[in-house]
């Protein structure tokens, strides 16, 4: 599946989060931020556009209603950050720690998560369109009542992930692994799985498989 990658200029100005995020209308654009610690902060309705963010820490920071457009996060730690009710478009998360991040009630489009940890993260009641999740840990991740369109899951660990009230039609799980998955039978219609996964689902549904 092809998605649109972030459109980021080659020449970026170096900035720091603390220089601007205490302004009335917090906004950063056309810049690069590296090795910045912005933990346990509260910044609502921030806007980040056409920028790269590398080796930064945002643990427990409240970014509710953030607008992210054309942004690259690389080797960042956003554990337990609040990105609920947010707009996230043409954004890449590469080698990031997103443990327990709150993405609920958000809109994600043309987004890529790569080589990242999303265990216990929450996407409930969100819309995901053209999202690639590649080689990521999604243990106990919550996708409750999500609208999934053009989603690609590749080589992910999904053990304990919750897809209740979420249709998996057209979603290919065949390259991912799990021991347990929370999903209703009706929402599995049209989901693509491997033969071994089909046996797992049959077992989860209480079927007894005989040789």
From TrEMBL:
SUPFAM superfamilies reported in the protein's UniProt record: Pentapeptide repeat-like (SSF141571)
InterPro entries tied to this protein: 5peptide_repeat, PA_immunity-related
Record field: transmembrane: none
Lineage top rank: taxon: Bacteria
A Pfam family this chain is assigned to: Pentapeptide
PANTHER family, A to Z: ANTIBIOTIC RESISTANCE PROTEIN MCBG (PTHR42999), PENTAPEPTIDE REPEAT-CONTAINING PROTEIN (PTHR42999:SF1)
Name by which UniProt lists this protein: Uncharacterized protein YjbI with pentapeptide repeats
């Amino acid at each position: 599946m092809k998605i649109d990658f972030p459109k980021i200029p080659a020449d970026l100005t170096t900035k720091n989060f603390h220089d601007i995020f205490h302004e009335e209308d917090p906004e950063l654009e056309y810049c690069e931020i590296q090795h910045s610690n912005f933990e346990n902060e509260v910044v609502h309705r921030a806007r980040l556009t056409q920028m790269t963010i590398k080796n930064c820490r945002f643990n427990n920071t409240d970014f509710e209603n953030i607008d992210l457009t054309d942004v690259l996060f690389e080797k960042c730690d956003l554990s337990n950050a609040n990105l609920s009710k947010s707009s996230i478009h043409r954004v890449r998360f590469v080698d990031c720690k997103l443990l327990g991040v709150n993405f609920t009630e958000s809109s994600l489009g043309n987004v890529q998560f790569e080589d990242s940890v999303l265990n216990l993260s929450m996407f409930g009641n969100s819309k995901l369109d053209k999202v690639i999740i590649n080689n990521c840990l999604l243990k106990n991740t919550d996708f409750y009542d999500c609208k999934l369109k053009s989603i690609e899951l590749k080589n992910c660990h999904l053990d304990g992930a919750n897809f209740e009230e979420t249709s998996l039609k057209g979603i290919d799980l065949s390259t991912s692994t799990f021991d347990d998955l929370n999903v209703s039978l009706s929402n599995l219609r049209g989901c693509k799985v491997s033969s071994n996964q089909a046996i797992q689902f049959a077992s989860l549904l209480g079927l007894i498989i005989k040789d």
